[in-house]
Design brief:
Number of helices: 5
Radius of gyration: 23 Å
Largest sheet: 5 strands, mixed
Oligomer: single chain
Structural class: alpha/beta
Number of strands: 5
Shape: extended
Strand order of the largest sheet: 3-2-1-4-5
Order of helices and strands: HHHEEEHHEE
Helix content: 25-40%
Length: 171
């Protein structure tokens, strides 16, 4: 049966690809439109376009990240049993880190203190800190009309934030 499926019918068994959330058709359309806009701006002047992009990423940082099973593997003679180790539990203490970078530098690294979710007010304060960091460290970039790329922008990108930066949202 396996040979018929794989050799004759040229089929393969694939697992489902897990994604954070499936996109609706309007979100896919927006993503396609923004991608075309980016492509057109790139076509006009690639040298000037790329330095304008600022990438934003958010990640949870655990205070203790245990060693995984793959990292603890050892080469041992076949007659010996493997090492024994108590399973370490990942700490519940974690902090959200938001980082902004461009093609050359990390522009800002911000930790979410005390709260567990990013709100519009918090995000606006982080964008203000980014504007100050750009003004102090990279004043030319601030005047180039920064394009902020943030995959998770819809979760906390409200109208109160729109005036801070020209924004390219991919999600």
């Amino acid at each position: 049966m396996y040979t018929i499926l794989t050799t004759k019918l040229k089929l393969s068994k694939l697992s489902t690809q897990w994604v954070p959330k499936p996109l609706h058709s309007d979100q896919l359309q927006t993503r396609a439109e923004v991608s075309m806009e980016i492509f057109n701006k790139w076509d006009q002047d690639p040298e000037a376009f790329l330095p304008r992009i600022v990438i934003v990423d958010e990640t949870w940082l655990n205070s203790y990240d245990p060693e995984g099973k793959a990292h603890s593997k050892q080469w041992l003679p076949t007659c010996r049993s493997g090492p024994v180790q108590a399973k370490a539990v990942r700490s519940t203490e974690k902090v959200m880190a938001t980082d902004f970078w461009d093609t050359q530098y990390i522009l800002l690294f911000e930790f979410l203190e005390g709260q567990r979710t990013i709100t519009s007010n918090y995000y606006e304060s982080v964008l203000t800190k980014l504007a100050k960091a750009l003004a102090e460290k990279f004043p030319r970039k601030l005047h180039q009309r920064v394009l902020l790329h943030h995959d998770d922008a819809n979760a906390h990108f409200f109208s109160s934030n729109k005036g801070n930066f020209a924004t390219v949202s991919m999600g």
